[in-house]
Structures are given as structure tokens and as C-alpha cells.
Design a protein that fits this description.
Length: 204
Amino acid sequence: MKLLIVSTSQRSNSQSAKVARYITENRFLAPHSEGYEAIHHLELCQFNLPFWDGDEDSKGEHWPEIAQKVAQADALILITPEWGGMASPLLKNFLLMCSRQETAHKPVLLISVCSGISGAYPIVEVKMNALKNNKLVPIPDHLIIRNVENVLNATPQGTRDIDLRERVQYSLFMLHQYAQALAPIRQRHIHQPYPKQQEYCYGM
């Protein structure tokens, strides 16, 4: 199984990327880690993706590389900063560019990072209106990393940071459980499709 972590801040050296690196580098701490043959981190701001205009041929030179990693993944983690109470434009653009052939029926762990005490709005926004047509399956255990500059750094700082690290491990464990459970569904969807399946390719 393969895990893809996508950090979607539009800034280099972002806190979103820091959280992604923490998960990637500390995977050995979690019991789920042995189940993944590969874990990849995509920092989207490094790829200079165009804003998609609906044309399949206008996704930019880097999209084939990104799309291949999305298609090969059995589970995804999407990490967004909270900007003005919203998920990042880069995340929403990424989800528009993904096709359901690459994403459908794959579990996704949503993570929002915030420099203050908010952070809930991006989770609500993505769950409400960003997963309809790509058919990603958000697991219930989303994460909100508040006061992100002070946590998940090189050394744990206090009880809250330690508790958060344990919560991250639990959420990663659950993501792996969903990845295992949904893999057979994707295979059946390919080999035993519903009659006239293409008529229902978009969510309601």
C-alpha cells in the first residue's frame, strides 16, 4: 500500500509542510507504518501549477507526475493552512484537477493547520463542497493543528504537544484501516461495475 501526503500552503517553508515532514519522518513510531510500502510527500507550491480552467490539456507540465502519484496511492493526507477561515486556493485547485479515476473510493485524512486557536473552517469547507465529484472518502478522524508553530517540532514541548502527537498516530492508524477496507471496493468497482455506472459519475 502507498500513502500520499499533500501539503497545500502557497508559501515555501510553511507550517503545513512541517506537519507533512513530521508525519513522513516519524512513520516508524506508528503501528500502521509497516503496512505502507512507500510514503510520498508532495509540497504543491514547489510545482507551479496553473489555475485550472476546465481544459484537460491545461494542467501544466508537472501534472502528469503528480497525477501518477495520486493514482498509485491507496490513501491520502491533505494538509491545508487556514487563510481567512478558508482552505487554501492551492488545495481547491488540486482537487479540481484530480480526476475520479485517480481518487475515487480512496480514504483521505484532512488536516488543518492554524497559527491561532481556530482551524475548523477549512475542514468543514472541504467536507462540504470539495469531495463531491472526485469521490474521495474523508475518514471521521480529521486533525486540527492549532498554534502550529509551537508543536510537532524537533523536541516535544509540554503535555499538549505530546497529546497531539499521540492523536496524530491514532489518526494515521485509522487511515490505514480505511485504506485496507476500501481497497477491495475499488477492485470490485473496476471489475464488477454497476450497470450504466457512467450515468452516475458525478455526486449530487
